[in-house]
């Protein structure tokens, strides 16, 4: 591993944690590609191209999280989580997660979700949907009206594949969060 790759690995592990095998627990879609499926005469070239693309995404997400002082959460799930004082899953019958389950109100725009904490508190949700429907737009507007601390931004993120990054954050913890 080169010095630059080792430095990125060390920085990223502090933000995302480690896998059982000691690798970085990257957000969904950012991990190094599996070599399986890159057969044929141009297989290695395609694999190298994909690997370079994911390494660029890894650098982008790491620098973005560092810039905002964020760490990946393994319990974040939806805007209800974002409004909590501590990072816990929506598990009770009283607080129903608005992301997981069938046909939930936020499941469309929360595709490829990553949740983030700042100083141990729920702070940011990022997602990478392939499209944001009118219903999704209405739901995002509803959340920002429901709680004046919530803000939303859109842009290009690290996931790629023609997706749009949607960022929802708590403005009482972080004044501004720009898409990656």
Give a written overview of the molecule:
With 180 residues, the protein is an alpha+beta fold. It has 2 domains: 3-68, no CATH class; 71-170, no CATH class. It contains 4 helices and 5 strands. The protein has helices at residues 3-16, 43-68, 79-82, 134-146, and strands at 71-73, 114-118, 121-127, 150-155, 165-170. It has a 5-stranded antiparallel beta sheet with strand order 1-2-3-5-4. Strand 2 (114-118) and strand 3 form a beta hairpin. The protein is globular. The two termini are 26 Å apart. The mean pLDDT is 89.
Q: In percent, how much strand structure appears in the residues?
A: 15-25%
- Count of helices? 4
Strand-pairing-aware structural class? alpha+beta
Helix content: 25-40%
Residue stretches low in confidence (pLDDT < 50, at least 5 long) are none
Radius of gyration: 17 Å
Q: What would the average pLDDT be, to the nearest integer?
A: 89
Strand order of the largest sheet: 1-2-3-5-4
How far do the termini sit from each other?
Answer: 26 Å
* 3D shape: globular
Series of secondary-structure elements, N-terminal to C-terminal: HHEHEEHEE
- How many structural domains can be distinguished in the coordinates? 2
**Major β-sheet, in short?**
5 strands, antiparallel
Number of strands: 5
